[in-house]
Amino acid sequence: MDCIVTSIINMKGGVGKTMITTNLAYFLAHEKGKRILIIDFDPQANSSSAYLTFEKYEQFLEDRRVISEIFTDIDKIVGPISKRNPKLLTLDDIIVNIYRTQRAGLIDLIPSELELSKVLERSGGGALEERLKLLLSPKKERYDFVLIDCSPTYSVLTTNALRASDNVLIPVKPDPFSARGIPMLLNKISQYNMLAPDNKVTILGIVFNMVKDNLKYMDSVKGQILTNHQNVFRTEILATEHYSKGLMDNKMIFETNAQETFKSNFRDFGNEYLQKVGR
Fold this sequence. Notes:
Elements: E1 4-8, H1 17-31, E2 35-41, H2 46-51, H3 54-62, H4 75-78, E3 96-100, E4 106-110, H5 131-136, E5 145-150, H6 156-164, E6 167-172, H7 176-195, E7 202-208, H8 216-228, H9 241-248, H10 260-276
């Protein structure tokens, strides 16, 4: 079956993009035996720190196994090969393996770094918006799913992610500030699809994240979003400190001592994700 590439995006920070990306990868690899690639496309490198110890991360920075490398000179990506340019950059040069499971599932990661933010200062040219697709396309069929943890600002990084993606997942913390970014993001994606009719992405859906049942304002915000948007996940991801505590210890929710309620809740979300992508 073809690889499915999903970008996890919201133009508001603090909505749990990294938490969803990393835990969904774990669920798909460990419980479904899928082959997963996580692309950390946020200069804050939260997905990288979620899976890597500081010592390993520092080593990968030194070895330049980071996503920033795709924004090197275009000759190093598409050629031609010459004495000055003897080897092209490939996905294998920047990927690190995280897990290989007995059920044939695996998680690979392309780490990020703060230096990625310098890409935002560059002008166009050199196929700048195509870099991720150029690197990913020849190799992505080795994976079942690619999950792209995107920066919260719409930029050339976002365009790169969309060019490489099949669909978009929008995490929303049900508070007024997080919800405010949804119409802007949907408009940006609509504009992107109009400008790239041969490379359109679909909206997989909005997922409510960090939900607390005892807060009335959350119910109000959820009601407004459900009224204005039809494509919303049935499963709401419940708030628990075990997500953030787990990530600090390089553990996903399934590896923590969280109550089974929270693990089952995320499992429900993972299964609904699979239904929405037709798997």
